[in-house]
Specification:
It is elongated and about 65 Å long. The chain has a 7-stranded mixed sheet with strand order 2-1-3-4-5-6-7. The two termini are 38 Å apart. α11 runs parallel beside α13. The chain contains 13 helices and 7 strands. 44% of the residues lie in helices and 10% in strands. It is α/β, with parallel strands linked by helices. The longest helix is centred in the middle third of the chain and has 28 residues.
Length: 358
């Protein structure tokens, strides 16, 4: 066992003062993680009572200030605001002269790369996009979850090493994402993380209706195994009546859903069609069985306004693919995080899962 005394993180070279603009779920957690690496949070901005409580819990003794004052005090600034607010915030800070040359300006949006920081770049800032692919709760557990968390990084090539170093200091795993691939990257996380929450919540509601007293206990082992199998084997892990081509069972499901949870029918049909397509493509679903199955799905889709794999409108049972749980703010999350409004507990994302999968 190594008994050599380890240096205090505060004694490491090149420690930075850190500021947070937007004390949602993500910003304070990242700043607290950077503090563990020896950096020094010096200022945070937050508007709502919840954001102020979050900042006080994760960053005690760090003063609350306006965004402009945060930039005045910090060498590294985390811009953890909703995606839609980010361009305006950056432009406003640059126009008012708040951005200082040589200042590291980091945003955590999954949707945007480094280009959204161009106004700050022209003012001399060093732009980094560091998106944690994690859902956040706004509590201290988020700091622990950053260990091993992948970060989608986009930055100018000359800042790549700096971006990777910051992620590694927070215990994360850097993953380089090209500027033009950021929206696709973000959509992928939202599809996997945000929609998973919707599916699980609907499943628990249906189990309760069916008389199951502890749906979470029933689903936990099943979903854990399904997730593990999917991550290990991809489409080869597909099971169930759709992958088997059990058209009669699928038709019975739809009858029950129409009776007890009509808002879930559109989602069931869309996912069943997508599952059937993938099972066919990978040879898991026999063509002779697929015909009856796809016929059932087409007939039912005609009655609900579902065509192919799409759904009509944004009615009950659908999810906005632009939201994620890994994002981090005082407004509803865009990510990670997959999310409820930021001032509630999550899990984009990112900010939920902001990230948000934020």
């Amino acid at each position: 066992m190594n008994t050599t005394p380890q240096p205090d993180p505060k004694d490491r070279p090149a420690r930075l003062t850190v500021g947070v603009v937007g004390a949602g779920r993500v910003g304070p957690a990242l700043a607290a993680s950077l503090q563990l690496a020896g950096h020094r949070p010096v200022a945070v901005s937050g508007v709502s009572d919840a954001s102020r409580r979050r900042a006080a819990a994760l960053l005690p003794d760090v003063p609350l200030m306006s965004p402009a004052e945060v930039l005045q005090r910090a060498e590294l600034v985390l811009l953890t605001v909703p995606d839609d607010a980010l361009p305006g915030l950056v432009a406003g800070l640059a126009e008012t002269g708040s951005v200082r040359p040589g200042q590291l300006l980091v945003h955590t949006s999954g949707r945007y790369g480094a280009r959204v920081l161009d106004p700050a770049l022209r003012a001399g800032a060093l732009p980094l996009a560091l998106h944690p692919a994690m859902t956040f709760t706004g509590t201290a557990v988020d700091v622990q979850r950053l260990a091993g968390c992948s970060f989608g990084i986009t930055a100018p090539e000359e800042l790549r090493l700096a971006a990777e170093a910051l992620v590694i200091e927070m215990g994360g795993e850097p993953e380089w994402i090209a500027e033009d691939k950021r929206p696709l990257y973000h959509a992928a996380l939202a599809l996997g993380a945000n929609h998973l929450v919707t599916l699980v919540a609907q499943s628990m509601e249906l189990l309760r209706t069916a008389g199951v007293e502890a749906p979470d206990r029933m689903l936990g082992p099943l979903l854990g195994a399904s997730l593990d199998n999917a991550l290990r084997s991809g489409d080869a892990a597909l099971t169930g009546p759709v992958a088997r081509g059990d058209a009669g069972t699928v038709a019975a499901h739809i009858v029950e859903l129409r009776a007890h949870a009509p808002q879930a029918v559109a989602g069931y049909l869309a996912m069943a069609r997508a599952t059937a397509d993938r099972a066919l493509d990978h040879g898991l679903l026999k063509a002779e069985l697929a015909e009856d199955l796809l016929g059932v799905l087409a007939d039912e889709a005609g009655g609900t306004g579902v065509t192919g794999t799409g759904t009509t409108g944004a009615g009950p049972g659908t999810t906005d693919p632009g939201t994620t749980g890994t994002d981090s703010t005082d407004a509803p999350d865009d990510t990670d995080g997959t999310d409820a409004p930021d001032d509630t507990d999550g899990t984009d994302g990112t900010d939920g899962p902001e990230g948000d999968a934020r």
